[in-house]
Amino acid sequence: MKIRGRKSSFIAIAWVLLLSVFLGACGQGATGGTGDQSGGEAENGLQGKRIALIMQLNIGTFSAQYIDGVRDQVEKFGGELQVFNAEEDLARMASHLDSAITQQFDGILIDHGTPEALDPGIRKALEANIPVVVFDAAIDIEGVTLVEQGDLLLAEQTLEKLVEDNGTDANIVKIWVAGFAPMERRQVAYEEFQEKYPDVTELAAFGSATSNTALDTQSQMEAILRQYPNKGDITAVWAAWDEFAKGASRAIQQAGRDEIKVYGIDLSDEDLQMIQDPNNPWVASAAVDPSDIGRIQARLLYKKLNGDSDTPDRHILKPVMVTRDDLPEEPVTMSNLQEHVEEWGQSDDVYEDWMKELEEQVKGE
């Protein structure tokens, strides 16, 4: 009888312990332990997340500042970022995506790429409950958030500025490359521009994305200048990427063709220096802060990690036009550009209260 009594006591204690654990777990769930589905409260478990950034290419200062923006936001949230650069090799990009899934990263960010290369891997990531946010790629998969720069408006702003400065009968050179979702969207705006201004003549069109894009563009632009050697032959150059604008501007400046103006897309510290130089042909560029792009993309991923049901399927960033006339004589950088261009600066897009609280938690540890 004595032995049986002890057994009963042990069983009773065990049931009490199990019940207390169960009730404790229910209590955590009631306070948002898996993330507030309306996007209001962050889960403490968001700290320490491993985030993969998979890039098709990492070229120039724009990419460097974009990476800095991603890293800055991820680390402020207490996470760790690893960058995978495919160096323009789509097969390698797909392989990097598979590696990130195999290594069980908590979230995946993608920069550029194509549906053909990425769709299978993205679907595999979603099946493994790894959230994905894509920047500047034409991915159409339910559950994946797309971030775009507002490419139609980027192109429209620069092309309209070109006409405003040079008239509706300008002779222009277009520098553009196919095969990239943002470029394809900018081409749509260019075609609309051609319909709107039929007297604008396209003298030449070229462009390629390589590991030395700016240098290759410079060489190609030098050939165009030899083809049109007289002042007045070429009115302006429209460059659909800042690496194109850099190369074209150097060729034009070295040739002494100061009558030709360059209109670009995207900005960096180096770009600003060129635009500020009164002897440089680059006079205007439309852009979104690349650091902001990275930060906003990371915030969208963390919304998914937090289980927020209001995470959008698509987020379009608003571009800003920056011209030489907007800038002072003293050097300007991306960090203080807002002092001279009011619309520029760190964006509060997708920057929710729980994210700020999470940053404070990380900062205090």
Automatic annotation (TrEMBL):
Sequence ranges assigned to domain Periplasmic binding protein in this UniProt record: 51-308
Subcellular localization: Cell envelope
Keywords assigned: Sugar transport, Transport
Xref: CDD domains: PBP1_methylthioribose_binding-like
InterPro entries in the record: Bact_Solute-Bind_Prot2, Peripla_BP_I, SBP_2_dom
Family the UniProt entry places it in: Belongs to the bacterial solute-binding protein 2 family.
Protein name: Simple sugar transport system substrate-binding protein
